[in-house]
């Protein structure tokens, strides 16, 4: 897809590509130059994305991490100091930039598909597969709670109010489903098994 980003503000150079050499890379999915993971918090987008990139010999990029690099602030700080509107502008600019790269696996932030501009970028970029990782809200919430207890874990203020988090999950579902080329329920899948499922899916397409 050609990102129509003429109006997007100038940004720093993109994050250097990260790839892990392997003697046995899996053949790249025919017809695809980019695989993008979407889904709610706790779905495993970053973990699965990094593992898949390693298997393919591609590079991996977490979009929220890229936004933090561009802004020089952590995501919660961007929201608190600069506001959500600023964060969303940076998100769209970052997405437009990284979608211009090939042989890359991208993990989106959970709220990225809510923005029309982001959905259009994903829908209009050729050779791009979007994979929606899903599970019941209770499963995702429990995973997030475990992650939050890990030293150095990313702050997730929305987890403080379970009811609000569940409402946000429900509101985002339609956007995840709309942009997805493939949907995988990860309830009973390890990250490694999820990677295998993605590889099977696109080997058959």
From TrEMBL:
Cofactor note: Binds 1 Mg(2+) ion per subunit.
Swiss-Prot/TrEMBL catalytic activity: shikimate + ATP = 3-phosphoshikimate + ADP + H(+)
Biased composition (Low complexity): 16-25
Chain spans, region Disordered: 1-25
Names of required cofactors: Mg(2+)
Binding positions for substrate per the UniProt entry: 64, 88, 110, 172
Any Pfam family hit: SKI
GO BP: amino acid biosynthetic process; aromatic amino acid family biosynthetic process; chorismate biosynthetic process
Binding, Mg(2+): 46
EC number from the UniProt entry: 2.7.1.71
Job of this protein: Catalyzes the specific phosphorylation of the 3-hydroxyl group of shikimic acid using ATP as a cosubstrate.
Subunit and interaction comment: Monomer.
Record-given protein name: Shikimate kinase
């Amino acid at each position: 897809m050609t990102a129509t980003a003429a109006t997007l503000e100038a940004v720093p150079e993109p994050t250097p590509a990260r790839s892990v050499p392997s003697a046995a890379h899996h053949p790249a999915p025919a017809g695809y130059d980019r695989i993008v993971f979407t889904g709610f918090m706790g779905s495993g987008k970053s973990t699965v994305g990094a593992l898949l990139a390693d298997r393919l010999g591609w590079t991996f990029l977490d979009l929220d991490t890229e936004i933090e690099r561009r802004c020089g602030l952590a995501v919660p700080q961007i929201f608190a100091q600069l506001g959500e509107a600023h964060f969303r502008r940076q998100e769209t600019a970052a997405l437009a930039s990284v979608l211009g790269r090939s042989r890359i696996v991208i993990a989106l932030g959970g709220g990225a598909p809510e923005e029309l501009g982001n959905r259009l970028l994903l829908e209009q970029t050729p050779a791009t597969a979007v994979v929606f990782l899903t599970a019941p809200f209770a499963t995702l919430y429990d995973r997030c709670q475990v992650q939050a207890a890990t030293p150095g874990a990313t702050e997730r203020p929305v987890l403080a109010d379970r009811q609000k988090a569940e409402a946000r999950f429900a509101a985002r579902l339609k956007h995840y489903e709309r942009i997805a080329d493939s949907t995988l329920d990860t309830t009973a899948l390890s990250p490694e098994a999820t990677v295998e499922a993605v590889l099977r899916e696109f080997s058959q397409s």
